[in-house]
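yo

u said u wanted the structure for the complex thing, so here. seqs first:
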Amino acid sequence: MTRPIAPLSLLAAGLLLVAGCGGSGSGGSGAGSGGAGSKVLTVATSDDVKSLDTAKAFDTWSTALVHAMTRRLVDYDLQGEIVPDLAERWEVTDGGKTYTFTLRGDATFADGKPIEARNFQLAIERIQKPATASPGASFYSGITRMEATDPKTFVVHLAKPDPTLLNVMGMTFAAPIQEGQAADRPAASGPFELESYEPGAKVVLRKNPRDPRNPSTLQQLVLQLGVEEALQLSRFQNGEVDLLARVPPAERAVVATDPEQQDNLVQGVVNQTWYFGMNVTRPPWNNPKIRQAVLLALDRDRHVQLAGAGQAANGILPPHVPGYHAGRALPKRDIARAKQLVNEVYPDGPPQSVMWLVNSDLYEAHAEAIQSDLADAGLLVELRPVTYSEYLTGYKSKADCWYGGWFPDFPDAGNFLEPVLHSRSIRPGASQNAARYSNPKVDALLDQAHGTAKGPARDALYKQAEDLVLKDIPWAPLYFEMETRYFRDGVTGVTVHPVWRQMLTGIDKR
Amino acid sequence: MTLLRFLAKRLLWAGVTLLGVTALTFFVVYRMPADPAALLAGPTASPEVVANIRTQLRLDRPVWVQYGDFVARLARGDLGHSFIRNEPVAQAVGRRLPATAVLAVTGWLLWLAGGTLAGVWVAARPTPAREGGLLAFSILGASTPTFWVGILLLTLFVGKLRLFPAGGSESPRHLVLPALSLAITGIAYYARLVHAGMTDALREDYVRTAVAKGVSRRAVLFRHALRNALLPLVTLAGADLAALLGGVVFTESVFDWKGMGKLAVDSVGLVDIPMILGVVLVSAVFVVLANLAVDLIYPLLDPRIRLQ
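structre next:
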């Protein structure tokens, strides 16, 4: 009689066979990185890329890819200052209402066609068309007319002076396009061009040989999409990925303190303020004393610890936004005083309110810390974790209070403050000014600063506005986000840029 | 003629079922408390920009009008266009389907083969150790979530031993761990079923007769007993294969296997309504077809069953 072979033994044997067949080590067939030493940089992210269309790319990685494939009239240096890019120079006339850009003479698209003024005009006209449904449309709504007076001269006319026009021209929306180009395939004018794009899986860029100003020797750049953070880390350790563009907090705490890893690590504060927001039209947050108590109750250092890195907030504007006031200090934690303020307003105890947050581990950790701090002061909040997509409109329309982060589209105090704290931004339903905060003095200062030329006078106006907001406290600022990049030996030029949340240009590999 | 009438009747019902599935999914998805336009516009977008995107996506029209459009498109064989990714739904599903099919069929064959062999092995020579071992393996395997098995396999074979790549779906080496992760839980359940069926069958008179007539042990086990023990498994295996083909949600997510399951998860997260509908519809087609196949196979295995 024959005895059937134990099935598990068969499985184990097969497993070892397949593992052995593929060669030893890291499983280099997987990542498409070409292995260590080749001029291919492989990066992985858990996010997806929503669009490679210059008119639509607005999320972090879509923007990073379009940024790598295009150049605009201006860009930012590593300090976040505006520098010429495809524009050689510009002139502002007509009281700040006309900008005349003179283009470089040598710039071409990847197909060899020259980049001319009309290519910028085409791009902006396309964004302005409602049918394009560009998320960047509002940035260009102040442009009344454009002229390509000759191939190298591009003139922009504004309805009223706007000191942020250069910032707007530096956004990826304003990258030059060609007539009749495929919407999802940017006309490459930058260091890289698109080789292939598999939605939800992978984007491959290759070096654009017609960009003489690209110093990188990388031949290819691979962005793996939708890879969970734990897998990213495994791939990094296996050598399948060269750069971890976002290091999970737990891992960051380990590598950041390891002296041997310091050469493979870059950290920097980015323009994102995390805060506890309150709808000031609803009790208990409609009472200024309660909001004062919140500011006194919250432990900002604890939030830095929870995030794994960061800078305790000393105001609303983050450090790389012009107008940030380094000398400002928020009141120290004082639970006794916070309790006293709550008791003065609600001797019988305040009403409970609902706090909105995204249902991720990190959000929940911060929200629980806030809940606990507020409970110490006698304020009760119930947590309402929801999906990111529900949160996005929910906190603006339904929340009593929420935990959230806010960042500007470009480094400008007006761009940061106006959408969320100007009374003009209060709307029925989903209100961008989710706190429903209204202070006519703040409104007037923001309006005055908006039209003032960039410089100390403008910054001073924004500082006054921010000081007033910090007295009223519709937001209790918690911390400024710090990002960490972790890269393998031989990778150079990785930065945490003050403007571009992820930047793929400037990186090289030895 | 009977077969043709049976098929026509079943296909008609299949059409009605699929239409019902699309209607249910459509209205459930539209009740989701999330706005795809807001997600596309980004967190800092103004309400005007969000409203414009909503208009362009035609989300500002009544739900029943949108469903009517969806059905009309479907009748023309068009699954629509993704809200988020700039590609037709059919193209996205078509690109993901082969990966899911490879993983699903491999995992499913391992279930069947492993479960059958293990069940027969224990039933053929039932010792307390073997039966206890099978029971323990079955309870442990069936009650451990697939994603947890996946994480354990990744930790061991990728993190510690570095024998396999860390997820992905590019080569046969990438297939091993997700298929194994699927198989472990499936084998545990199937082995228990086959064992129970075999134990019953081996007590039947026809088996005793076969043994008395001098039929070999292997023939008794596989030709006489197993054929009968497999009957309940056929229905289950058919339904399981259909469910797997519809997307192996957790396993694909844990191993970054670029299949339908991962597409479904990503699409729900991004509120990509046309993509969600496309994935659900394709999954439903598999379930309907698998049930039909099971009904057709049954009479072949057991002549007492007739098509009705």
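Residues 456-472 of chain A form the longest helix (17 residues). The longest strand of chain A covers residues 265-278.
cya
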